[in-house]
Amino acid sequence: MVLAGAAAIAGCQREARPFRELPAASARSQAASETPLYAGSPSPPTGTTSPFQENAWGLSEGKRLFVAYNCVGCHAQGGGAIGPPLMDNQWIYGFEAKNIYESIVQGRPDGMPSFRNKIPEYQVWQLVAYVQSMSGQTSIDASPGRADHMPPHTPETISPYIGRRQTGHK
Amino acid sequence: MGRARAIAIGLALAAAGCGGVQSALNPAGPQASAIAALTWRFFILCGVIYVLVIAALIWALARRPTPRDETAEGQRRLGRIIAGLTVLTTAILVVLAVSSVVAGRGLISPSGPGAITINAIGHQWWWEFEYQDVSANEWVNSPNELHIPVGVPIVIKAMSRDVIHSLWVPNLIGKRDLIPGIVTHTWIQADTPGVYRGQCAEFCGHQHAHMAFLVVAEPRDRFETWLQRQRRGAPQPSTPEQQRGHDVFMTGPCVMCHTIRGTSAASNIGPDLTHVYGRQTIAAGTLPTTRGHLAGWISDSQSIKPGNRMPPVPMSGEDLQALLAYLETLR
Q1: Buried residues in B232-249 as b, exposed as e (16+ CB within 10 A)
Q2: Cys bridge to B103: A91, B38, B142, B325, which one at CB 3.0-4.6 A?
């Protein structure tokens, strides 16, 4: 009984849906250091997981933003095209949250642009969590549904660009 | 006395609800007129029948049975009355059904060839109106404000980018659903110039209630003037402050979602801002367009419309003032 109650309360975290992410999420300086050496005494390690790692809403927002910010332009729906695939276990720059964060914010050589100042901090973390979910790094009960084959269509959370791009003009 | 006054005030308030810019009882076009006429026809006919039935019921309760009722002649008379009323009831229902079908058919097909075609695209939680009849490189996109010329039917192709929405302008047309993946058609016509309010009529998420738009119906020449102005891209910033605002926009998160034609900002996730300051409202009819409201919206839109897709964009006071100065030039 007590266990069931505790499980129910713990389950609330999964669906937590904060509207005003800032300033809490942005106040954290998340740029990971390039070296294990610190000046003076070692700083406490920064959080290395996305705050949305176990949060279904944050993961689904990441899924929406992945299309909205045109990550699909190079990475397709995770299968990769111009850019490397994200749903396999091969990582050029590391699979940890801070590595993916850096890839997005700083960019990477040979094509990955830097989104510094372009994507708000909390949305970067939503994208990080979603990208991790593609390779099964987030718990399955919070992750958006992922098919094992490469999906030919965009996620259902956002339908394809319609309007001027597809209907054309007279 | 007090009760009479209360009833009078109540009636006055109820009557006030009939007017206004978002009322099906204040029709301004042929479709809304047909719907309003049908409404009144049903209301009056059903009202009269209700009063007659209640009167007959009271009469029947108050009446004493007479010995004649039990005779064969009395029974036959009763049978004739019941048969007559059954025929009358059927006839009334047929008349109501036919008038409903006739009114419904009139709503489907436009009264003439469409003067222009407009794409209406639903988003969580705002409206996008695209004018098709302009060449591809000067397309007109007017979020949350639909301008139409009066007196001519306008064809509307309705679509959705995410979930099901429904387009409803009570003064002009009934509801038309916007279904993801499907293009639905409807038409709209305003005979009286004016500004009417439209509203999403299908629950579509957190800010469904704040998903409104304005229909500005104006004479043809004024409409053409508006369209001509909309075709133009944004002007170049002319002061150092505007230039700084332009740079804040182009180097910040704004460009990830918004378009300003004539600049490098060309994303269509959020509303087109090329003429943002020329529109009457921001945030899909939520606030009037003023410098202060824009500032509040940019700084923390989540406190105004919680759950909307615009992230808060914190910036320094100088940057914000410069950005506002730039946005004010986008008319």
Answers
A1: eebeebeeebbebbbebb
A2: B38
